[in-house]
Design brief:
By secondary structure, the chain is mainly α. About 75% of the residues lie in helices and about 0% in strands.
């Protein structure tokens, strides 16, 4: 019995790339929220914790959505390598 992969290697690589790219973009867009969350809560540490927790969770969810989208639809044109 062959051990064929369900997801081809090039699709897995593109999904990993999509996860990292989307997660870092999500993190960079959340940075300004930390400046807003800290003064609006009474406690600076609580504000920092809420901002950091929200940033990490939203980045992970966005990255996972990107990776699953690539796995379901295939490798996008901009991720394909030319040989």
């Amino acid at each position: 019995m062959s051990r064929a992969k369900v997801v081809p290697a090039d699709v897995r690589l593109a999904a990993k790339r999509g996860f990292v790219r989307t997660a870092t973009q999500a993190l960079s867009s959340v940075i300004p929220l930390g400046a807003i969350a800290i003064p609006t809560t009474g406690d600076a540490l609580l504000g920092i914790g809420l901002a950091a927790g929200g940033a990490l969770v939203s980045a992970a969810l966005a990255g996972a959505a990107s990776a699953l989208d690539i796995i379901s639809k295939g490798v996008p044109e901009e991720y394909q390598t030319t040989r």
